[in-house]
Write a structure and sequence with these properties.
2 copies of one chain form a homodimer. By secondary structure, chain A is α/β, with parallel strands linked by helices. Chain A has 13 helices and 9 strands. In chain A, the strands form 2 sheets. A 6-stranded parallel beta sheet of chain A has the order 3-2-1-4-5-6, sandwiched between helices. A 3-stranded mixed beta sheet of chain A has the order 7-8-9.
């Protein structure tokens, strides 16, 4: 297939590489052209603009930061994409933004598919991502072979926006687990117990999780170099809470985690790892210890 | 070894059975003698009282509900246990209660070991529990062969009380994950997305966990029959928050989860599964939907 790809960051580049390796004709465009060099050397084609890419491709993939970035690209793609083509967006954006983009594209006979992913750069490189997508189920036939190049768990969550709702749930559960792990690490340290041992015990029981494996290890080692930079989790969480407000549901733990992420950002740790949530707790020293 | 066991509930009975099957001489006592029948039929001996058991055994195990239950048994055991013997407590009790029991026993030359477990009745039956213990490290030589009959992950967390601190961390992380999963299920439902699909997607990515596997499935199926009854998680969480106050550390997500567990208890769901936290969220309907 003729596939376009915009957004060649830590996630996008290995994903685009997998599509190229699977034999697809890959066209790329990037704001900073140097970020495309790696793929161009491996046979990808260069498009002069997103619109030029849209004219050449039946599926245009995007993997950028937030709603505004996708909307800005969509404004350039929508007039150039042919009826029957697909804008396949892997970014994490607001469910409502995905629903609205889908409606706007539908007027042109183009499908917009929200297909956010989970699994981080390691999952992108290993092609073991979880992909949760929203859009017409009839599109599965065309999209499943692409998804199979990128991930291991492929779930059609429902209509447009459903993929982003699933991703919102993913970020809610994941970052809440990071915060709970940080609170456990803080409690263990205050009680004089080595958190590395606690983590090892927990991983063997009912509290075991991927978050405890990855973020728990980073907290135990006090290694705050990112994985995913915390400001992206903060950005995602703002969308989680906005969707909750839109749907009229209370998320008490979600709201508390939002506060702690705000504290992390205020401390200037937005470009470090989200395991810095531990340090937000450490800053709040009770009066009798100061 | 001559081992005593008190507390033959859903966890204790299979644990005692594994010790018996491993060839140890097992002596049991129970408030309701009928609960010992299963083990007596398989060769266990009956003690007329906890004190009689203490006189006959070099290690007395207990697996009861809370701090008060262990303290009440300890009051009967302490005068009868010989110097050099061990009271090995698998219950989940307050770290501070474990520290104090250890001090009191030490005056008699007896070791008190806190060894709470994680993994539920399924883990107890399969002998795959995580066991996190606190006490003198020199005891490992005598205790490790027993632990090996019961669990797969054995961690010496530190001095007396450290096992209970690890268990407090375990309950904090686990119940926070149940609450976050409930919030995700509520958000998905409100947004018209099938939570069973969301859960499947999440389990394949960075948010994957044992809680999502077990409690997520129960929420998706709206099956609120217990696993562990919620009032036990509530009881454990009261101890988590008490230890946090004692150590002077803030647990913002912990405090929020405590509130939701209080809501669950107030709704009369204490004898059902903790996945009922979903229903606590469902009760809080925003004004514009009522």
């Amino acid at each position: 297939m003729n596939i376009g790809f915009i957004g060649l960051g830590g996630m996008g580049q290995p994903m685009a590489e997998h599509l190229l390796a699977a034999g697809h004709t890959l066209t790329v465009w990037a704001r900073r052209p140097a970020s495309a060099d790696f793929l161009l050397e491996r046979g990808a084609r260069w498009a002069e603009s997103p619109a030029a890419m849209a004219r050449a491709c039946e599926i245009v993939c995007t993997n950028v930061t937030g709603s505004a970035d996708v909307e800005s690209l969509a404004a350039q793609l929508i007039t150039a994409l042919k009826p029957g083509s697909v804008h396949l967006d892997f970014s994490t954006i607001a469910p409502q933004a995905a629903r609205e983009l889908s409606r706007r594209y539908a007027e042109k006979g183009v499908d917009f598919v929200d297909a956010p992913v989970s699994g981080g750069t390691a999952g992108a490189r290993a092609a073991t991502l979880a992909i949760m997508w929203g859009g017409k189920s009839a599109l599965a036939e065309r999209l499943d072979p692409l998804f199979a190049c990128l991930g291991k768990t492929i779930v059609h969550a429902g209509a447009s926006g459903a993929g982003q709702v699933a991703k919102a749930c993913n970020q809610l559960v994941m970052v809440a687990a990071i915060e709970a792990t940080a609170e456990a690490a803080r409690l263990a340290a205050a009680a004089g117990v080595d958190f590395a041992k606690v983590r090892q015990a927990l991983q063997g029981g009912s509290a075991g999780s991927r978050v405890l494996e990855f973020f728990g290890a980073k907290m135990a080692a006090r290694d705050f170099a990112p994985g995913v930079v915390a400001r992206l989790h903060h950005k995602d969480f703002v969308m989680v809470m906005a969707e909750a407000t839109r749907q009229g549901v209370p998320l008490p733990v979600g709201a508390t985690v939002m506060q702690q992420l705000d504290g992390l950002m205020a401390a200037g740790w937005g470009t470090e790892d989200t395991s810095r949530l531990l340090c937000v707790l450490e800053r709040a020293r009770p009066a009798h210890l100061i």
